[in-house]
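Bumping with the actual sequence this time:
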Amino acid sequence: MTQPIHFVDAFTDTAFAGNPAAICVLRSPAEADWMQTVAAEMNLSETAFLVPRADPVADGYDLRWFTPSHEVDLCGHATLASAHVLWRTGALDESATARFHTRSGLLTAAAADGWIDLDFPAEPMEAVDDPGGLSDSLGVAALWVGRNRMDYMVEVASEDDVRGLAPDFHRLGLIETRGVIVTAPGDDPEVDFVSRFFAPRYGVNEDPVTGSAHCALAPFWGERLGRERMTARQVSRRGGVVRVAVVGDRVRLSGQAVTVMRGELL
């Protein structure tokens, strides 16, 4: 029996931009080793696996995310892509909220005026000392360093500093963390802040657009800018736009998505 698989570019309205994810809607739960092997074969920053619950409309789907080398606790772009696939294939009506049961609790997605709104947990950073080698690995001076349960975050002086980063991925991969977010204020008056995200320890040197990183970026910049709603741009080579809103201990992430390919695992 074959397994359909969908390739979706997330946090973009243009094919071959944003962050690509592979999405598998399974008929029944699969072994973790098999899912990890599929993710390694896809070699994208994330491959997502969904299993419908007894009533997918009311109860939703179980959702897991895998990089080429690790299962992760939270992923924004592959969740956005999963909702896009469910609506485009007719598994859910587009008026229905997609509900996902994950290692980070219940996450939801709703369609709104051509965008997809995700309801995610806030993942605020706490200020910490440089763990040793972090700034040197990035090749940039850090104004501030923070840490949450998943990642480090480094604030730098300018958008040019973020765009010009050329990390030493070997050295960066020695730091015990899922990934490293680097951020600065945006130069464009329509963009509040910019970022890039590096996760060589998890098999992804640079992630093009990282929804889960914005669960930390939104409260960080919201406090500094005195704003609840902001527009962010991840300035990787592919790039993408994320609208964010801080709502108590939750963060709303909004983006768009485009299906670029469908296939079958044989």
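The tokens above came from a reply further down the thread. The chain has two domains: 3-119+253-265, 126-248.
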